[in-house]
Amino acid sequence: MLRSFIPSADDARSLLRLAIPIAGAQVGLMLMGVVDVVFVGHLSGRELAAAALGNLVFFGLFSFGMGTVWAVDPIVSQAIGAREHDTASLGIQRGLVLALVLGAGMSLLCLPAGWVYRALHQPPEVVPRAAAFVLVAAPSMPCALLFVALRQSLQAMKKTRAIVSCMVVGNVVNAGLDWILVFGHWGAPAMGAVGSSLASTIARYIMLGTLLLLARHELRPMLSPWRRVALAPTPLLRMLRLGLPIGTQNLVEYSTFAAISVFAGWIGADVLAGHLVAINLASLTFMVPMGFGSAAAVLVGRSIGERDFAHARRVAGSALLCGAGFMALCACALLAFPGAFARAYTSIPGVIAVSASLIPIAGVFQVFDGLQVVAAGVLRGAGDTRAALVANVLGFWLVGMPVSLLLGFRAGLGVVGLWWGFVAGLAAMAVFLVARVRSHLSREVARVSVEGEPA
After folding, report:
1. CA–CA separation, 3 and 195 (whole Å)
2. What is the pLDDT of residue 78?
3. Cα 172–chain centre separation
4. Which domain holds residue 132?
5. 449 within domain boundaries
6. Backbone φ and ψ of 348, nearest 5°
7. How confident is residue 453, by pLDDT bands cut at 50, 70 and 90?
8. What secondary structure does DSSP assign to 144-194, as a single string?
């Protein structure tokens, strides 16, 4: 049965044609956060920690909403594979409704950020700045999730050019506004970390408007006419149930990284800042296999819609090989040049020292991280949204977190010990999810349906 997962050259090329622009868009999305950190990282450890903590809360909530909206993937891609235009159109419209409702809810949950930081005993000098960062970012949450819904829909349609163009526009706008608002150029006040949050907020709205403009010809047949049935509560609730395990999976993963960040904050502001620099770098490389996973979700979903299960298995094999291969190259770079990467982010000596000690550990877990996110994307395309949630709970909470606490505090290794828990947790997840891909795709897979029982 393993031989049926071995891809042909055509399978690999098909995956790469879709995955490369998707991965580029994912990197572009993450790059906005990286640029924010780089600008703020040349101010002070306090401002860097504030920006990083602010991002933890905002992107924690965003990652839950984003994962839930990813229910669009199997619904739309399988419908397109089955050549059911009306079903695909309805799935996109419901995805937009879901994104708007979730975005409003996530914005409200940003409001108590200051209280959360104080309850978690974060450095008192950092808390007010971090809370202000979150409050400035909160109004962009609905916009960000609407962008996700449209992006996933276009990916399912294999229309990615407009997405990549939007990422370029968003990054240029964000970097320019960072330069103005963080440092106070052109007569603007020097806002520091809060300025980087305002820059990203403005950039998110510009990206959404740009996407609607550039992809209007592809989106118009899907969004017009607007169907009143897209607002029917029962199918929306079924779509929510399909997406909630993905959102919760993202939240489990993000909350684990956030918890380790909280523990690092107990050690000191420079340790927290160095930890978050290393996390930011690891997250940037992670965007590429996440792109492979998203491409695999589309191609596996289309294959299931076409009832071509042999092709679905070969797509899965291609994606796992490509994701693991890319992360192996990243691992080599991170292990070889940790100091250079740390200095690219910040000029603060204490922060450089901490991040340079953690970046090689990120190199160790790169391949495991790539395998688990690609496998989760394959399963999402097949409509299995619960396996990745189970893997995250088992890997992060039952394996990774105990190892982190044991090595970090009991063994006295500090933040370095905390990071070795990532290695243990991600390795466990990778093994579980790759095995799940093999077992799930070894048989016929039913279509996903939110209208009633699966087809």
Report:
1. 53
2. 93
3. 21
4. 2-441
5. no
6. -85, 115
7. very low
8. HHHHHHHHHHHHHTT--HHHHHHHHHHHHHHHHHHHHHHHT-TT----THH
DSSP states along 117-130: HHHTT--TTTHHHH
Cis, peptide link before residue 225, omega less than 30° from 0: yes
Query: 361-389 as b/e, with b when 16 or more CB fall inside 10 Å?
Result: bbbbbbbbbbbbbbbbbbbbbbbbbbbbb
For 320-368, what is each residue's pLDDT tens digit? 999 999 999 999 999 999 999 888 877 788 888 989 999 999 998 899 9
Structure token digits, residue 290:
């996440």
Q: Cα separation of 229 and 132, whole Å?
A: 40
Number of domains in the chain: 1
Q: How far is CA 374 from the centre of its chain?
A: 12
Question: pLDDT class for 281, splitting at 50, 70, 90?
Answer: confident
CB 326 within 8 A of CB 369: no
- What is the number of helices (H) and of strands (E) in the chain? 18, 0
Q: Which pLDDT value is given to residue 318?
A: 92
Tell me what the mean pLDDT of segment 94-100 comes to: 96
The band of 295, judged by pLDDT with boundaries at 50, 70 and 90, is very high
Q: CB of 23 within 8 A of CB of 288?
A: yes
**Residue in 366, 295, 358 with CA at minimum distance from that of residue 327:** 366
pTM score: 0.85
pLDDT bracket for residue 56 (50, 70, 90):
confident
Has residue 454 been placed in a domain? no
Residue 453 lies in a domain: no
**Rounded distance between C-alpha atoms, residue 39 and residue 36, angstroms:** 5
- Stated length of the chain: 455
In a domain, 365, yes or no: yes
236 phi-psi bin (left φ>0, alpha ψ -120 to 50, beta other): alpha
Least Cα distance to 68 among 116, 100, 25 occurs for 100
